[in-house]
Amino acid sequence: MAQQKISLTRYLVEQQRADGLIPGQLRLLLEVVARACKSISQAVNKGALGGVLGTAESENVQGEIQKKLDIIANEVLIEANEWGGHLAAMASEEMDSIYVVPNRYPQGEYLLMFDPLDGSSNIDVNVSIGTIFSVLKKPDDHPGVQEGDFLQAGTQQVAAGYCIYGPQTTLVLTVGNGVAMFTLDREQGSFVLTQEDIQIPADTKEFAINMSNMRHWDEPMKRYIDECLAGKEGPRGKDFNMRWIASMVADVHRILMRGGVFMYPWDKREPEKAGKLRLMYEANPMSWLVEQAGGAATNGKQRILDLQPTKLHERVSVMLGSRNEVERLTQYHAEKA
Ligand SMILES: O=P(O)(O)OC[C@H]1O[C@](O)(COP(=O)(O)O)[C@@H](O)[C@@H]1O
Q: Separation of 177 CA from ligand 1 center, angstroms?
């Protein structure tokens, strides 16, 4: 008898029933986010046929020229999530400040942060991109909502995930009970469970970093990569392979599937920036997924999920993936501290 297909809705309902792990409101919120990702997947899939490729005439808060699809994805997520009554506010890589749910809609108890379309440099060249999201509880010790309510450590996340738009559209999710993966069944129009309890191997022979930045790295980073490149003749005694898709969502997805270590370290030219990637809606959700799959995530000095955010669009140095490699990177940085 064919294995029964478990839909995302059924999976979340069973999680809710089983461990009472996820309250009803959070389950409904995650279903709305998944529906929004399905719409974004259709827009991305259309590409030039839908006239959605290319840049828009605007810049985001990071000073980056926005792609048309960045804006479309952002609007799809806002419109899908603002009326459901699950959220108090949202924050996005593409918006300077927080978006408070208009009071014509019921105010919910959750806060949603997202990178509507990660991997912007790949949007127009048909390489995998994705949506990354993170959910927090709104502090209930004061009425209303403000930007400060979002500045919670990654350990406070109640859900995190991404949806990758590649050869398949795949949603990867955690609510604190391991990592599950759902593939979009385009015929049915629904996400179907295709893998549960994903585990990242503790060891790996594969690293991911933008090598063209090597001259800007600090000593521990250079030492780690030099040793990987030295291969089995070198101190690591094994050959390493390199991969760099330049879409964090795609590089991390590969690591969840077969192991590896992803690094976007801070850059000596801009020490004040502490890195390129954003803590709240890139590093925190990806770090929690990786940890829930048995991996680890550090900024070189500290576990990323323990970092206390100070700004909404704060950047951070990121090293995550197979546990033993991340521990080696932490050790090399500690030796230099
Ligand atoms: O262009 P680079 O330096 O290789 O950086 C690629 C990194 O930047 C990002 O594209 C940043 O994210 P956005 O595309 O959302 O701005 C990551 O997805 C990726 O890992």
A: 28
